[in-house]
Design goal:
CATH architecture of the largest domain: Sandwich
Number of strands: 51
Bound molecules: alpha-D-glucopyranose
CATH class of the largest domain: Mainly Beta
Helix content: 10-25%
Strand order of the largest sheet: 5-6-7-8-9-10-17-16-12
Radius of gyration: 27 Å
Largest sheet: 9 strands, antiparallel
Structural class: alpha+beta
Strand content: 25-35%
CATH topology of the largest domain: Immunoglobulin-like
């Protein structure tokens, strides 16, 4: 046992014994002899907030991450005092706070340990910064695993790793490189098949150590601010992630086109080049919904201006592109060029909206336009002004989405790549230095952009994408994983990053397909697009230094593979949209790492490559050149190989053959997968049938399909269509019950049903208990069945 005195010796300070406690509705305050206060708040039966101060009082409670609308309220709260500890009991957990040293111990109701403080809360006075480095350490148990933390480019299971959270412009980052662009100080622990989560809501530079420094200890600490964290109890990883996502917020639905394929490059210009690219997509019949303008569309990289030599009439161009189904998305960076003739600069200067150094002058730094000043997006008035700047781009010119970049914030030609620490921020009325505001800067920029685009796009939905983000950014924006590299290793990284972002509440994410830096081979590009179409955000982007990265920059075979997979994405749009709906409704991640999918199966704990796309499709990318297949783990249950329709039983690792124009994709037995016809862009075609691929299973399986007007806000008034199919398969029959919710009447009138794996020949069909005329020869020829969409029960008999 280490005593307090020994520890103080090392420079760390610890709470001493509790001298009093007080309850205030859902919060309990514990006061120690040495002025530490722990405020413990029960937000829900399985969600507790721990807040510590060493000052003897708490500063203003303010967080950018927490969503105001989060669920709050518990069923049971009881506080008792025992000889050595205080006990807080809810409907789900028991938490004990030790009187002697303020350490906390959390148990489930059966008394199993969920999480115990090791040293617990402690701190070190920082002479460099003033204030404290606040620290927490937890005992880690044999076999415990860790997941989450946003965009980390390392193994899914974080056990043995130490990570750092400090938003950084990390061009051509490497595997294991730290820190990266985003900051999501949230992780899940899994032990004895029980999951819990920790969200350390502190925007200073934070660190997490998962049994790296000491084998039995997990710790997290920060260069300032408060020890302020939330504990989530599972026991399912689903419970933890959905509860974290509820706390930090969910996005609204994006317009359906935003789930289509996007094409980007640094940069497409002039107008003729943009048109060549879009025309080529249509000519080659590769679906595409969005085209991006990178920084060269601007006049000298001044945001909200156009280079009139390259783009003489942006409004005309944007509308011509729109007629061809392309939505135009433009980049907007935070650096505002210092130029007395430039209206945005002048306005911000007049209104005093730029960030300042501690001693008074404006924060000045070099970015693309040269010397710039930077709006302080942590000031609500600045955000409001910024939102207003989008009027011309969105209302007048017709731009449909905005891409926020360099918002870590990035500064060029300085060793720390960002602002100096002394820069001042408003922080919504809680003035602070850049040390505290750094990690949130990008999110506040994206938030201001979102409000602007939304205001002027209304009644249509906005689309925003950001590079930097802090927890909660998902309420406003999608994101991409930053400047990756055209290498096989980066394909591996992209797969992990996007899965990890998904279970970290920020699901609408993708990577630069093909790699941003350097040149992918045709094979690498093909393998990347095969994975990328299964990412919630799907965009090819490249730095343009090395030539072209449009599908036709590669040979015919690669073009065909690209078309085949982008077509598949467009067919799966209703499935993807349904995943998105479940994300915004329930907080369910759109991609599920295998461990999340089945935490009962310990074989999944160290898997990286395989993931579940939505609820019923298993995907495993090919991550090596010259592959004819790969070994992969198939989770328990029955799965159909998407390409061969052969069924396999999971729960084991196996070799899966995979030609160059395939990657392993499996569909869960019993699933009903909705598909649209291939369209060159969302809304191109009207169609009279929703295709349903029905994968036979002996037993039951539920599948759902969410649809609405694909844009606009009527869905919030109940104008959506939610189909829920209950399939029951028996030896010689299939029964499908359909339940419909919502007031939206979809444009199609029929389902076109395609049966896969049916072990019997169809002899008889009943719809709502009435036999229908069924031509078995026609069925044999076509292999599908057309039935009206309004049935309640479809009964297929052999
Ligand atoms: C940054 C972005 C990249 C963009 C480039 C030029 O490197 O990450 O996506 O193309 O800046 O704007």
């Amino acid at each position: 046992m280490i005593t307090n005195t020994e520890l103080e010796y090392k420079g760390d300070l610890y709470p001493s014994k509790i001298v009093s406690f007080k309850q205030d509705v859902d919060s309990v305050y514990f006061y120690t002899e040495n002025n530490v206060i722990l405020k413990l708040t029960v937000l829900r039966d399985s969600l507790i907030r721990f807040r510590y101060t060493t000052k003897g009082y708490f500063s203003n409670d303010f967080s950018y991450a927490i969503d105001e609308g989060h669920s709050h309220g518990y069923n049971h709260l009881e506080i008792t005092e025992e000889e050595n500890y205080y006990q807080i009991t809810t409907n789900k957990i028991i938490c004990k706070i030790h009187k002697i040293d303020l350490r906390s111990f959390i148990y489930d109701l059966k008394g199993n340990v969920l999480l115990e403080d090791e040293l617990g809360f402690h701190w070190e006075e920082s002479y460099e910064f003033g204030g404290n480095i606040v620290k927490m350490s937890k005992a880690s148990r044999e076999g415990e695993c860790f997941y989450g933390l946003g965009d980390k480019a390392t193994q899914m299971n974080l056990k043995g790793k130490r990570v750092e959270n400090f938003a950084t412009d990390q061009y051509a980052f490497q595997k294991e490189q730290e820190p990266l662009y985003k900051v999501v100080p949230f992780y899940l622990g899994l032990h004895n098949k029980q999951a819990y989560g920790i969200f350390f809501d502190n925007t200073f530079r934070t660190f997490f150590d998962f049994c790296h420094e000491r084998r039995n200890v997990t710790s997290f600490w920060s260069d300032g601010g408060e020890m302020n964290y939330y504990f989530f109890y599972g026991p399912k990883m689903q419970d933890v992630v959905t509860s974290y996502t509820d706390l930090t917020g969910k996005p609204e639905l994006p317009p359906l086109w935003a789930l289509g394929y996007h094409q980007c490059k640094w940069s497409y210009y002039p107008e003729s080049n943009v048109k060549e690219v879009t025309a080529k997509f249509r000519e080659l019949q590769i679906p595409c919904d969005a085209i991006y303008l990178d920084i060269d569309y601007m006049d000298g990289f001044r945001c909200f201006t156009w280079n009139k030599d390259y783009f003489p009439d942006p409004k005309r161009m944007v509308s011509e592109l729109a007629q061809d189904g392309f939505k135009t998305i433009v980049i907007i960076d935070p650096g505002i060029k210092i130029d007395k003739e430039y209206w945005v600069y002048k306005e911000a200067l007049e209104k005093d909206y730029f960030c300042k150094r501690a001693d008074g002058p404006y924060m000045k730094g070099k970015v693309w336009p040269g010397e710039c000043n930077f709006p302080d997006y942590t000031n609500p008035e600045v955000r409001e002004w910024w939102a207003g700047l989008f009027k011309e781009l969105i209302s007048d010119i017709g731009v449909k989405g905005v891409w926020n970049d360099m918002n870590e914030p990035a500064v060029m030609e300085v060793p720390n790549k960002t602002f100096p620490n002394d820069v001042r921020h408003n922080y919504d009325g809680n003035p602070c230095s850049h040390r505290k505001a750094h990690n949130i800067y990008g999110t506040q920029m994206a938030r201001a952009t979102y409000h602007g685009v939304k205001r002027f796009a209304y009644p249509k939905r906005p689309f925003i994408i950001t590079r930097s983000a802090y927890s909660g950014a998902q309420r406003y924006t999608s994101s991409w994983t930053g400047d990756n590299v055209a290498s096989w290793e980066h394909l591996w990284i992209a797969n992990i990053q996007v899965q990890r972002m998904s279970i970290s509440g920020m699901g609408f994410t993708g990577s630069d397909i093909g790699g941003f830096a350097e040149q992918p081979s045709g094979e690498l590009y093909a393998r990347w697009i095969q994975l990328g179409v299964f990412h919630p955000f799907c965009r090819t982007h490249s730095s343009g230094d090395h030539g072209n990265q449009e599908p036709w920059a590669f040979d015919e075979e690669v073009i065909d593979i690209t078309r085949k997979f982008v077509n598949l994405r467009y067919q799966l749009l209703p499935y993807l949209y349904t995943m998105f709906w479940q994300y915004i409704e329930e907080g369910t991640p759109m991609l599920k790492p295998l461990v999340y999918f089945d935490q009962e199966d310990i074989q999944t704990y160290y898997r990286n490559d395989e993931f579940i796309f939505g609820n019923q499709i298993l995907v495993c990318p090919i991550l090596e050149p010259n592959s004819l297949g790969r070994r992969m783990y198939i989770p328990k249950g029955e799965w159909y190989n998407y390409w061969t329709n052969c069924m396999v039983k999971g729960g084991k690792e196996m070799w899966v053959d995979s030609k160059f124009d395939e990657i392993p994709v499996f569909v869960k037995a019993g699933a009903i997968i909705p598909k649209y016809p291939v369209q060159q862009y969302v809304g191109e075609l009207e169609f009279d049938e929703l295709m349903l691929d029905v994968y036979y299973k002996e037993g039951k399986e539920k599948s759902v399909v969410y649809e609405d007007a694909q844009d606009g806000y009527d869905y919030k008034k109940g104008r959506f269509s939610f189909l829920s199919f209950q399939l029951t398969g028996k030896e010689k029959e299939i029964n499908i019950q359909l339940h419909k919710d919502g007031k939206y009447d979809t444009n199609y009138s029929n389902f076109k049903i395609n049966f896969i794996g049916l072990p019997f020949e169809i002899k008889k069909i009943e719809i709502d208990n009435e036999e229908i005329i069924f031509d078995s020869n026609l069925f044999k020829e076509n292999q599908y069945l057309i039935v009206p969409k309004n049935f309640n029960v479809l009964h297929i008999m052999g």
